[in-house]
Amino acid sequence: MVDDRDASAIVRLENVSHVYGSTGRGLRSRRDRSVTALRDVSVTVREGEVVGLRGPSGSGKSTILHAITGLLVPTEGSVELCGTDLAAVSGGERTRLRRRHVGIVFQRFHLLPSLSARANVALPLVQEGVPRSHRRERATTLLERVGLEDRVTHLPGELSGGERQRVAIARALSTDPDVLVADEPTGELDTETGTDVLELLTDIGRDRAVVVASHDNSTLAVADRVVTLRDGRVIEDGR
Fold this sequence. Notes:
Elements: E1 9-20, E2 35-46, E3 50-54, H1 61-69, E4 76-81, E5 84-85, H2 91-101, E6 102-105, H3 117-127, H4 132-145, H5 161-172, E7 179-183, H6 191-204, E8 209-214, H7 217-220, E9 225-230, E10 233-238
Parallel strand pairs: 3-8, 3-9, 6-7, 7-8
Antiparallel strand pairs: 1-2, 1-4, 4-5, 9-10
GO molecular function: ATP binding; transmembrane transporter activity
Protein name: ABC transporter ATP-binding protein
Domain ABC transporter: 11-239
């Protein structure tokens, strides 16, 4: 298991456990209907590394992604994002860190149907207060990078599943994040289109950290390292 403190580490989970239904860090409610999702998990992801999270439904993959993005604070242990312990800062600061350092690719795209591909990609930049002209330029450049230079003004409903996923990837890259997290990124795609999307993620991972969660071994074939989970525990961390 990787646990060194080198400067290239973008994400570091140390002895992380998480209990859904607890009343706080290390606490349980009196009526304990809690579910333990993670048990003493330690994982490090470096710059330029694509790390896969493998395991069946309920193994803890999505909980790890939520912890990395700061969408949840684990019951025990620490999660560092770009050197900041997410449990040690306020909810507002976690949101700021997520917007600045993390790009999220959803399985079902989560594009706004009334907005063009370019406008969808530019949305995170609106939240950051980037001027409109710069947003348009950045979004156009990213759509060109993912091979959609001729789909800039198309609505999501006018795009194929693979094209919509490429728009979602471009949107996730809009703030130039340090880490990209993808939850079952090919789950809605056919095999050939899914392969194209995975190759794109691999290319993107050359200059940032990428974490891909999937139960599908073919999806995880692009990873430099695969972390296998079972019942919330890491049972293997390697190739």
